[in-house]
Write a sequence for this structure.
């Protein structure tokens, strides 16, 4: 699951950095924006089968690869 | 009956300070005096919407009854079914009062609508947000009393910041430790005094002293002149210090009451680009537009694969967002042009960021380019405020009248 999320993030950001530093702040570093976020939610839905409504997405809870992995593992 | 507008003069702060004392003492002993808070909230609403403004008071009551019933009915429906058309109808019904208030002046020669009142926009943002979260199944219960507390929270009722229902109710229902509360008091006092500096000194200096002078000079000169440029900067400073000062009061007073209302400004003139600017300027509004319009629209388009190109989707999202923001400010050409201007600016900004990412190795990045970026962003923003101010409207079309 962890690898899957990292792969999604790498594809979305077009950068290997997310795989190297799992605590990088995706929004502050400019790796992810609102558009990328929506893509992330859609990828999680189609690849991992988890449904995250846009309302559930609170930026501060999803801003690093590690936090996203934890969220996904929690929701499965 | 007296009428006092929020945060306008020392009397208001004095009454507020006295009225908040029991709440503060209660908080220091780990107790939330909800009944007392309701009582003084009511008193302050009467001060703001009573007396000479009684018509607004009636409008507010009518509005609240309508919107709370709407939320209740939609919640009742959503427990059983989830049709898109019902959701859309609920959102449309929720914004109809605001639309009427915004459209009326354009058709009635500037006369304000009877159903309008101070802060109707901000209440509408809160209601629409709730309907959307009820649809998403995030707000599960219909609790009219809490909804009233959220909608009518008096420190932020007139001009925000726009809080979120789940965030607000969490704060409202949690008791906080003395240490945490002392920390909040500390911040609250700091915000309020910073607000005094912003609103009563800086905004007064720019808005009430400089602005009329520069305005006269620009008008008597006529057409485009350096005085228009001066007006642009003076107006921008006034706009920022006035609104940021007001927001600091609202946040500071919220902190006194144990509610961590989100901040509205984060050094906006230090922004490196327009995107960065909107993450720092009137943040609760721009985040509202981001979360409830932009992201949902993009989500809808991508999920249904209506448009292939991600760039086109993003640009369409920006245009929609800023056009709605323009119309929300009011039905005048300059508010709408202001919206379109910002949409274009952010679309350009995105294109530049993509270009920069591609050619990272060849584009210098140092203190000078950073300063240049801030300078360009600042001037772009100030120019947009010149459009927003409506001064060009006076200058171009009504100059002779003055």
């Amino acid at each position: 699951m962890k690898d899957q999320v990292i792969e999604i993030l790498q594809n979305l950001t077009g950068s290997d950095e997310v795989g190297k530093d799992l605590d990088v702040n995706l929004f502050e570093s400019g790796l992810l924006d609102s558009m990328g976020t929506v893509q992330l939610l859609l990828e999680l839905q189609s690849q991992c089968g988890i449904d995250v409504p846009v309302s559930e997405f609170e930026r501060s809870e999803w801003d690093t690869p590690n936090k996203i992995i934890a969220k996904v593992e929690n929701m499965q | 009956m007296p009428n006092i507008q929020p945060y306008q003069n020392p009397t208001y702060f004095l009454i507020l300070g006295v009225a908040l004392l029991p709440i503060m003492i209660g908080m220091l002993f780990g107790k939330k005096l909800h009944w007392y808070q309701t009582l003084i909230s009511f008193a302050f609403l009467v001060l703001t919407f009573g007396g000479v403004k009684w018509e607004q008071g009636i409008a507010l009551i009518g509005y609240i009854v309508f919107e709370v019933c709407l939320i209740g009915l939609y919640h009742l429906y959503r427990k059983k079914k989830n049709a898109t058309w019902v959701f859309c109808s609920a959102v449309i019904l929720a914004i109809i009062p605001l639309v009427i208030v915004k459209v009326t002046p354009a058709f009635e020669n500037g006369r304000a609508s009877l159903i309008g009142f101070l802060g109707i926009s901000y209440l509408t943002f809160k209601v629409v947000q709730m309907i959307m979260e009820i649809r998403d199944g995030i707000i599960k219960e219909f609790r009219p009393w809490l909804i009233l507390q959220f909608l009518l929270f008096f420190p932020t009722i007139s001009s925000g910041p726009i809080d979120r229902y789940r965030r607000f109710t969490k704060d409202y229902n949690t008791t906080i430790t003395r240490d945490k509360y002392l920390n909040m008091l500390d911040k609250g006092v700091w915000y309020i005094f910073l607000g005094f500096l912003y609103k009563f000194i800086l905004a007064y200096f720019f808005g009430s002293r400089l602005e009329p002078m520069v305005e006269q000079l620009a008008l008597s000169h006529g057409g485009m002149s350096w005085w228009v440029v001066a007006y642009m900067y003076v107006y921008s400073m006034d706009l920022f210090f006035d609104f940021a000062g007001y927001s600091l009061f609202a946040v500071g007073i919220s902190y006194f009451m144990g509610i961590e209302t989100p901040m509205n400004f984060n050094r906006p003139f230090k922004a490196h680009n327009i995107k960065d600017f909107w993450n720092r300027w009137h943040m609760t509004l721009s985040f509202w537009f981001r979360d409830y319009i932009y992201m949902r629209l993009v989500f809808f388009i991508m999920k249904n694969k209506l448009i292939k190109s991600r760039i086109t989707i993003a640009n369409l999202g920006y245009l929609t967002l800023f056009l709605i923001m323009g119309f929300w400010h009011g039905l005048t050409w300059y508010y709408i042009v202001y919206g379109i201007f910002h949409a274009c600016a952010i679309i350009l900004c995105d294109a530049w960021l993509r270009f920069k990412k591609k050619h990272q190795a060849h584009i210098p990045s140092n203190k000078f380019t950073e300063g240049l970026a801030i300078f360009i962003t600042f001037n772009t923003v100030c120019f947009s405020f010149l459009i927003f101010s409506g001064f060009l409207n006076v200058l171009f079309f009504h100059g002779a009248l003055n």
In short: Chain B has a mean pLDDT of 94.
